[in-house]
Structures are given as structure tokens and as C-alpha cells.
TrEMBL record:
Similarity annotation: Belongs to the CDIP1/LITAF family.
Name of the molecule in the record: Uncharacterized protein
GO molecular function terms listed in the Swiss-Prot or TrEMBL record: zinc ion binding
Top-level lineage group: Eukaryota
Keyword Metal-binding: yes
Membrane topology type: Peripheral membrane protein
Keyword terms: Membrane, Metal-binding, Zinc
Species in which this protein is naturally found: Phlebotomus papatasi (Sandfly)
Main location: membrane
Amino acid sequence: MYVCFFSIAPAVGPSSTGIVCPSCRLSVMTNVRTESTTRTHVIAILLCVFLCWPCVCLPYCMDSCKNANHYCPNCGSFIGTYQK
């Protein structure tokens, strides 16, 4: 008999989410850390190219231009990413 288990990433949102950690199996509220991505840098470059250079820092200050990475507060394992 062949048994196959798939690790499906849990659905996470832009803010802290209640979830059962796949690593430590505890019910936790995730820690969220936002991270700049290539998209963030491209938006900043486009603002600079189109002479909006005073606004270049805006994508780095706005969470909506970044990915939200979720981590377990108990074991620190990576749970998932929310991308807009």
C-alpha cells in the first residue's frame, strides 16, 4: 500500500493569523515580518525615472508594497507568505 502525505501551506493573510504550527503542532498566533521584494525596488525605480524622486522612499515605508512572512512564535519556523 502506498501512502502519500502532502505538506500544504496554510492560508495566511496580511496580519497575524491563528493557526496550528505544522512544525511544533501548537495553536499559535503567527508573528508577521514584512520584507521588501523585487516589486518594491521596481516601484521605487519607476518613481525615480518618472521624476517623482521625493516619493522614492514610499514603497519601503508601506506594508502594502511588501510581502508578509509568517513565523511561529514558539519554535520560530517559517509558516507562509502573503503576497499582494
